[in-house]
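A reminder from the course coordinator: this example appears on the midterm review sheet, so study it carefully.

Given structure:
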């Protein structure tokens, strides 16, 4: 089995790029961020302080998550509810950033992620895939872009969904998430020593996908020699 670990900051396009590359290469795509978002959503619904490790940790035994591929698209289920759309709201994004800092949450999801990779050729994206979740992955990519470019892309996405937000608000959110992700005590965001840096600041979506595909093909071949 071949495992591809794609890490990088919020708004770098990891999910879209990884999902498309996986479909083209015939790999199973796993959006690990969706799992953290689902826990954040559950905590918000329960009225918990998502920054409070004890409050969030107390909820974990109640949470039942599953990833289902329906018509070739990953869907995220919280119990029997499909929450794939709701977890993309800005408030849930920030809650995900908070809960992902709690060691108990990361441990809760660790084995689920690893078990999927053991049984499939996967492309898995997140914040600590190459450093913690799949440290032995044959291919590791650190996908990034400038904060302003990530904010510009995110703004367009939110505007298409009818969300009333400004560029300044989105940029602040991106910068706050960057700070949270790189300064948390549990598995902070960082580039693995053996990861290939892929900066897409000056690339469009198709160019970004092509870059990632090329890295996967080259590194994947090396990993199977």
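Designed residues:
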């Amino acid at each position: 089995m071949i495992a591809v670990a794609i890490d990088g900051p919020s708004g770098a396009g990891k999910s879209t790029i990884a999902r498309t590359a996986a479909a083209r290469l015939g790999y199973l795509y796993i959006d690990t961020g969706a799992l953290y978002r689902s826990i954040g959503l559950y905590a918000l619904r329960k009225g918990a302080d998502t920054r409070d490790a004890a409050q969030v940790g107390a909820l974990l035994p109640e949470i039942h998550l599953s990833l289902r591929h329906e018509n070739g698209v990953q869907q995220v289920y919280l119990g029997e509810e499909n929450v794939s759309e709701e977890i993309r709201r800005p408030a849930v994004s920030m809650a995900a950033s908070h809960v992902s800092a709690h060691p108990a949450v990361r441990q809760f999801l660790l084995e689920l992620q690893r078990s999927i990779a053991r049984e499939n050729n996967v492309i898995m994206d997140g914040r600590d895939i190459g450093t913690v979740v799949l440290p032995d992955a044959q291919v590791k990519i650190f996908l990034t872009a400038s904060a302003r470019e990530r904010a510009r892309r995110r703004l367009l996405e939110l505007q298409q969904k009818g969300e009333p937000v400004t560029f300044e608000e989105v940029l602040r959110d991106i910068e706050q998430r960057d700070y949270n992700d790189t300064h948390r005590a549990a598995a902070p965001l960082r580039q693995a020593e053996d990861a290939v840096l892929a900066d897409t600041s000056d690339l469009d979506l198709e160019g970004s996908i092509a870059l990632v595909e090329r890295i996967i093909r080259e590194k994947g071949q090396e990993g199977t020699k």
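The mean pLDDT is 92. The longest strand covers residues 65-70.
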